[in-house]
Amino acid sequence: MGRLAALDDRGRGWLGLAWVLLVWAIALFWHSGSVGLVDETEPMFSEAARQMTVTGDWITPYFNGATRFDKPPLIYWLTAIAYKILGVNEWAVRLPSGLAALATIGLAFATLWRFSVTGEARQQFPWRPWLVGAIGAGTIAFSPHMIIWGRVGVSDMLLTGCISTALLAFFWGYASDRPQVKTLAYGGCYLAMALGVLTKGPIGVVLPGLIILAFGLYLGEFKLLWKEAKPLWGLLLVALLSVPWFVLVILANGDAYVESFFGYHNIDRFTRVVNQHSAPWFFYFIVVAWGFAPWSVYLPIALGRLELWRRKWWLRRSRAERLPLFAGAWFLGVFGFFTIAVTKLPSYVVPLMPAGGLLVALLWRDLLSGDLAPRRSMPRPGLSEPPIATEDVVSPGFHRTAIAAVVVMGILAIALSAQNLWLPLIKDPTMPRIREVLIESGAITRGAIDWAIAAVFGAVMIYRRRYRWLWLITWVGGVLFFVGTIVPVTFALDSQRQLPLRILSADVIRVRQPEEELMMVGFAKPSVVFYTQQIVNFSQRATPLIEGEREALKINPNPKPTTVLLLGDRKKLAETGLDQVGQPIAAAGSYQLFRVDRRAFANHQPPTDPDD
Fold it and tell me: Domain locations in the chain?
C-alpha cells in the first residue's frame, strides 16, 4: 500500500490503463466470441462484411444475394478487416464493437481523471481523481446495455463509441487552456463525428452537434464556441471523410439507395413507426431503468444535483468544473431526441449510457469530498474537505436513494430465487428444453445469492453511514452476477437457440450437391446464410415456396439438380406436411433438414398453413 500511495501521475496513469483493460476484458471481451451469432440482426451485419471479402465490392453491402442499405459501411469495413486478421468467426464479428466499447471506457476514465477534481483538492488528494475515473469506467463497463451491445457485431456500440469520442474530445478542447490541445481535441471531435456518419448516417453528426449546441446556448457561449471550435471547418472535415462513400454508393445503386437509406431508414424512422417498432412516450424511462441498472437508481439525484435553474452558478465555474453539466446535457440530449422520435428501439439509447456513468462517478466524487452533506448553497465540486468522522454525512435525498438501491438488489435476489414461478412462462418453440437447462446449470440460483449478499452488505453500510462503500458493493455484486449468471445463461441460450442451426448448417455444407438450392420455411434465421455461406430462400409460409417451384418447373421441366434442401422447425414442417415429402438428412434441436425432389415438392398439396 505504501508503494501504491507513492505513485506519481505517470504511475497512476499506467494503473488506470490496467484498470480500464481489466474491466473491459471481463465485461466485454471474455467469452464474447465463444457463442454463435444471434439471430436475427447480427448475422446480417456479419454476412454483409464477409461478402465484401468475397466479392471485393467494398462500396455496396450485400446480404443473401440482395443489397443491404440499412447502414453505412464502417461496421462492415471493420468486420471485414477483422476477418482478414482473425479469420471468419464470431471473435472477428464482435471485435469492432468490443474495441468501440474499450475506447468509450478509456476516454471516460481519462476525462474523469483529468477534470473531475481540480485546483487545491487535486493537490491535496491526488488519488481522488483517479478513483473517480475508476468508478466511472467500472460503472460504464458493467451497465447491462453496454454489455449487451458491446458483445454483438452490430453497429450500435460502434455508434456509441463515435458519439462518446466526439463529445469527450469536445470537452477536452473546451476545458483545456492549451491551444494545441484545443486544436487536436476539436479535430478529434469532428473526426469521430465523421466516423459516426459512416456508422449510422446523419445521426453521427446531428446528435452530438445538438448536444454541444444545447450546452453552449445554456451557458451563453455560442458565439465564443463558434469562433473557438470552428464548426464550419469541422463540418467540412466531416463531409470530406464521409461524403465520398455516399457518392459512390449512390452512383452504383441510384435512387434505390437514396429512398431506402435516407428515406426509410432515417427520415421515416424519426417521423413514423417503422417495422412496428412503436412504443409509448415513457418507453425509454423503462429502458434506461433496466439498461443502466442497478446504477439507474442514482440517476435522478445525480441529474437533480445539476440544478439547471441556477445558470448563474454554472457561469461562475471554470470550464473544467462544468463536466457534470456537460454529462447532463449529453444524457438528456440523447434521451430527449429519441423520445421525440416515433420509431423506438432499446438500442437507440445506448449512447447515453457513458453519460450515465460520468454522472454516477461525479456523484461519488461529491460523496468522497463531503459535498453531499445537507447544504444551503452549491459548493465548488470536489473542493470540500472530507468529513473527519467515521460516518459519511449525506443529504436525506441521497440516504433515500441508497436505501432504494439496496431494495433493488433485494428485489433482484427475490425475483431470481423465484425462478420456478417465472421460468415456465418461457414458451419459445425454438428452445423447448431451456427451462430444464437453466435450472440444471444453477446459474440463476447463483445470481440470487450474489444479489442477496450484496443487499445485506449494502444495508449494513447504510446502517453504519458508510455510504461510500455502496458503489464497490454494488459493482462487485454486478461482476459476480455477470460471471456466475449472465455468461452461463448466454451459453445455455446459445445451446438451445443457435447451436442447432449451426449444426444443421454444417450438415448442409457436407451434403449439398453443386447448385442445389437451400430453402428455409418458417421464421427466417439469417445465421444460416452466414454459416452455410450460400443464398437461402426464406419463406414464412410454405405456399410461396411450393408455388415458386411450380413456376420454375414450367420454365424448365428438367431442372438440375433435381432436388432441393429444405430446412425448417419440426412444427412448421409437420403443419404443412412437408416432413412427409422429403428424405430426412439430419435433425438438431427443434429443426430438421430434408432433401426433397423438386417435382414432388411442386406437386405437394399442403394442409391449410396457419400462416396463410
Answer: 2-386, 400-500, 513-603
